[in-house]
Write a structure and sequence with these properties.
It is a single chain. With about 260 residues, the protein is α/β, with parallel strands linked by helices. About 35% of the residues lie in helices and about 20% in strands. It contains nine helices and ten strands. Strands 5-4-3-6-7-8 form a six-stranded parallel β-sheet, with helices on both faces. Helix 5 links the parallel strand 4 and strand 5.
Length: about 260
Amino acid sequence: MSSHSHAFSLLSNNPAQGGFQLYTALNALVVSKIPDSLSYTSAAVLPLAISTAATCLFKKETLALPLPKSSDPNPPASGKSVLIWGGSSSVGATAIQLAAGAGHKVISVASKRNIDGVKALGAAEVFDYNSASVADDIVAALKGTEFAGVCDAIGSPDAAKAWTPVYEKLGGRYGSVMPGASGLPAGIEGASVFAPTIALDDKLIGDAVWAEWVPAALQKGTLKASPEAIVIKGGLDAVQEGLNKQKAGVSFGKIVVEL
């Protein structure tokens, strides 16, 4: 059986731990087996997204949601809920699956063309973020739940401005993928996330997610490699091509350079 992992060169600044090479030194906690049915290029969309999403959802400084306890596709409902802003991003798509896998009600937003695909990941409702009624629709969908807050997988001031009305009506905390996130509503508590802490300061989360839930969820199909990999062939010489495609704009996809 093959495996995939989150490389930590961003943290260590050690080239031996970088991902753009055939052999990478890895932290054993953030390595997971993958089923034979999942290709390396598809699996490559997951590692950073898993660590980032788990830190956003479960870290006590962010949303402090209960961790998943089983890879069962239909876990018991926790009564808690979360808004994941940017459900078609790699972090958002993985956060939806992690939160739903822990039994939490997930509400998300995406562009209109991606709503069905994002909902298929386990969100109870997905709304068009361009809709004038999006905040009211989200609040209505969260009725009757204990709202933990917002996992912001976009992190821009415009995104924060868009979900601020939900916070103003329901409260809750935030986690953001943007370091030093700005434009946040006054009084909200939470934090920006740094994915490598999943194996260090937040090792309890890393154990529950990476060591326990991820391998079993991949095997059962509870966790899917989403969004779809947009594969760039040509090895390291093709990295610039991948960057150019990313800069041009990608919707519900993840650029993967095949080594």
